[in-house]
Amino acid sequence: MSDHQKEIFLEDIDPRTSELVWREGKANECFKDHLTASQAWYELSERFDLSEESNLAVVNAFLLSIPAPLILSKAESGLRKLLYAGGVCKFGVLTPKLADEPTTHITDEPARDSRGHLLGDSQRKWQEYREYSESHSSQDCKNRARVDAGYASFVKKNLEREAQNTESTQFKIAGQQPSRPNVTGVTPELLAWANEYKRTSADQVRKFRNPSINPLGCAAYESNLNAAIAENLI
Known about the structure:
Order of helices and strands: HEHHHEHEEHHHHHHH
Number of helices: 12
Radius of gyration: 35 Å
C-alpha cells in the first residue's frame, strides 16, 4: 500500500471505534468497497436488484439517515434491518428481483396409439392435421388447404362428416363407396367408441379434447381417438 493509499485509508477510520466510517464530502472508497463486499449487502442483493438506480437511491437514503458516525458495522446492521422489513422504509420500497422461471426440458415422444404401437406416417400426418385445425383460425386453415393437398383432403372429409354425420352419406358426396375397415383384433369397446365418434359433431369433439373443458376425460378421449385412427375406424 502506498503512502497516499495509507493516508486515504486512515482518513476513513473512526478513531473511537477503529472502524471504517462514512465521511460527508469524502470519496469513501474503502467504506464502499467493504460494505458492498459484506454479507449483509450480499443477502440484500439476493432478494433485491441493487443494480437498479431506484433501489440504490432508497438504500443510500436509508443508510445516510443513520445517526453519525456511520461506521461500517452500523451500516451493515441497517442493511439487515432493511432486508427484514421487506425492503420497505420511509424513503421508498425496494423492487424485488424477478424470480427465474424454471426451465422445462420437453422431449418429443413418438406418437403412439392406446396400445403403445407407433402410429404410421399417414396416421401421424392425420393427427398433425387435427392439431393444426384446432390451434389455427379458419382463414389459416383455408390458406393451408389451398397449397397442401393432403390437408385439403382432411378438411373436405371433416366438413362432409360434420354436415351429414353418417359414413354412407359422406362417401356418396365424395363419389366413393364406403370401405369396411378390418376390425380383426379390435375390441368391441373401441368399435363402439368409433361409431359414437362418427355421430359426434366436430364442435363437441373439440370440447371433449379440450383439457380445460374436459379435464378428467380429455386424456382418455385422445387415447381412444388415436387408437381409432390407427385401426382406420375413422
